[in-house]
Design a protein that fits this description.
single chain, 341 residues, mainly alpha, Hypothetical protein af1432, 63% helix
């Protein structure tokens, strides 16, 4: 048993010796919402990473839209593959800057658990439907704090929870690992979404302004490497994460280009109108018939407003489950006749 206990102490010693003075050390975590016995082998950030990998919300990400609704091709990015991309890039940034890779990975794995079916379209729709609004980063925190494990939550550390809720560009993470994930998220989605848009025939790489390509690169590998290299050169040895001006401006121009040509294009908005009709109808249905919610959500009604719980349920759905549930509620079923002889 003493050998097992020494494993975690060894990790603490390695972090103390080799991580940046600005890194979040596992031994100095601000702890969990509820105290619990520590693991003999794993640090708290390692435990959080494991809890996120094995939770139900993480598994559902494989059937949630990233950009293209329920794509037929096998190689389009889903919310799960996006999450794995973000985790990989965040670890690369953390490794380059001698930050805590376990913490960065845990934040990345949890950052999009609260995303709706039908991607950001679903988020905009629920935000319009709910009187209290809906933001996927706040819902991701609610998933790990409240919804997982049948209403018990995952009881993650402060640093992971903070990184999850603050991963958007407008957020202000308390750790450099959290800031690494925020950058990694943006680096990942503008690059793999561009690849998907080219694969889908929505645009050609030659459509991207030449100055963006000249600064960032002509392939995803080149653009991601440019971004990570820029972060390293401008952040190493500093208590901050940032890019140089040229790379950041080119990245923002690429993001704006993607919004104009892909995210808010006519074809995308047409599918969003269909998603809005579906989600609006189901929202109204469960608001008027809360007894038809699954048992876990009915239990949540004792502590939370009905609007919140209905959004909890709808946002938890995968694309195909949302379509199935809509069909089950609103599409008439054929009669089965008994042959009376």
């Amino acid at each position: 048993m003493s050998d097992i206990l020494s494993l975690k102490q060894k990790t603490f010693a390695i972090e103390s010796q080799f991580l940046s003075p600005f890194a979040a050390k596992s031994e100095k975590t601000r702890g969990r919402l509820r105290e619990e016995p520590p693991c003999a082998m794993r640090t708290d950030y390692q435990r959080d990473r494991d809890r996120l990998i094995y939770c139900k919300a993480f598994r559902r990400l494989k059937n949630k839209t990233q950009v293209f609704f329920s794509p037929e091709g096998d190689h389009y990015v889903t919310r799960l593959t996006h999450t794995l991309d973000v985790a990989q890039i965040a670890r690369s940034i953390a490794r380059a800057l001698s930050l805590n890779e376990d913490l960065a990975e845990a934040i990345a794995l949890g950052h999009d658990l609260g995303h709706t079916p039908f991607g950001h379209s679903g988020e905009r729709i629920l935000n319009k439907l709910s009187p209290t609004g809906f933001k996927h980063n706040e819902q991701s925190l609610r998933v790990v704090d409240v919804l997982e494990k049948d209403g018990k939550g995952l009881n993650l550390t402060y640093e992971v929870r903070d990184g999850i809720v603050n991963h958007k560009k407008s957020g202000n993470p308390a750790t450099l690992e959290g800031k690494s994930v925020s950058f990694a998220d943006r680096i990942a989605y503008i690059n793999h979404d561009l690849d998907d848009a080219v694969r889908a025939g929505i645009l050609k790489l030659s459509d991207v302004p030449a100055d963006i390509i000249a600064t960032l690169g002509s392939t995803s590998r080149e653009r991601i490497n440019t971004a990570i290299s820029s972060i390293y050169e401008n952040s190493v040895g500093k208590d901050d994460i940032k890019m140089d001006v040229a790379v950041e401006e080119a990245s923002e121009k690429l993001r704006a280009f993607m919004f104009e040509r892909v995210y808010l294009s006519g074809s995308a908005k047409g599918e969003e109108e269909k998603a809005e009709r579906m989600l609006s109808a189901m929202y109204a249905h469960f608001m008027s018939r809360p007894e038809e919610l699954p048992e876990t959500y009915i239990y949540l009604l004792e502590a939370y407003p009905r609007e919140q719980v209905v959004c909890d349920y709808l946002s938890s759905m995968t694309d195909r489950y949302a379509i199935y549930m809509f069909d089950n509620i609103f599409i008439p079923k054929g009669w089965t006749f008994i042959d009376e002889k």
